Amino acid sequence: MAKISRRLQEVLKKVEDRAYEPLEAIQLLKETATAKFPESAEAHIRLGIDPKYTDQQLRTTVTLPKGTGQTIRVAVLAKGEKVNEALTSGADIAGSEDLINDIQKGMLDFDCLIATPDMMPQVAKLGRLLGPKGLMPSPKGGTVTTDVAQAIQEFKAGKLEFRADRTGIVHVMFGKTAFSAEDLLLNLCALQECIDRNRPSGAKGRYWRSVYISATMGPSIPVDIYTLRETKITEAA
């Protein structure tokens, strides 16, 4: 069993055995973010779905109103003028077959990969490499598009792609612990609304099972699901 550090033992004492109101949970998250580096705020949401069935899979994007707090490196796979368009629109890397070759050789110096539809037959060969890292372009994720300029702008501004893992749990970073509690609440509410809005058609019974938030190196803090779902973004603004 892994040894728990003294720092984590101290912050664990601050978390009570109860579900917290969303803003209260976020304030506690900030208080327990005591690592020596800028920590992210993370949400871990267990849903009543079984992703082995196609009608119970959740894969979509959310635009966080206050951004991610991260510098997102965007790569674009396109042809001809679309490569120049991508670069002038703020892409960090752009190319065609040359970029595919670089990726096959292990070059993964990006956080988001956007591709135009005409590149997808060639992108398919990268599936084994990109899939496990969550970098494979997909229409559902908004990363397969002809409007590369808009896609680059959105992902740079705080758009995130996420999916439920094989156990039906969604893991999403919703900002940095340095954000104000109100800004983190705004982002968390946007995430909640997005998950509700994209409820899979095959999801039966209770959809939301549990919600925990934490700093990168902090303890898990249970959030009251019903209060979160009743908290409107306009109230947090």
Automatic annotation (TrEMBL):
This is Large ribosomal subunit protein uL1. Belongs to the universal ribosomal protein uL1 family. InterPro entries: Ribosom_uL1_bac-type, Ribosomal_uL1, Ribosomal_uL1-like, Ribosomal_uL1/biogenesis, Ribosomal_uL1_3-a/b-sand, Ribosomal_uL1_CS. The keyword Repressor applies. Binds directly to 23S rRNA. The L1 stalk is quite mobile in the ribosome, and is involved in E site tRNA release. Protein L1 is also a translational repressor protein, it controls the translation of the L11 operon by binding to its mRNA. Keywords: Repressor, Ribonucleoprotein, Ribosomal protein, RNA-binding, rRNA-binding, Translation regulation, tRNA-binding. GO terms for biological process: regulation of translation; translation. GO terms for molecular function: rRNA binding; structural constituent of ribosome; tRNA binding. It holds the Pfam family Ribosomal_L1. The gene is rplA. It comes from the Bacteria. GO terms for cellular component: large ribosomal subunit.
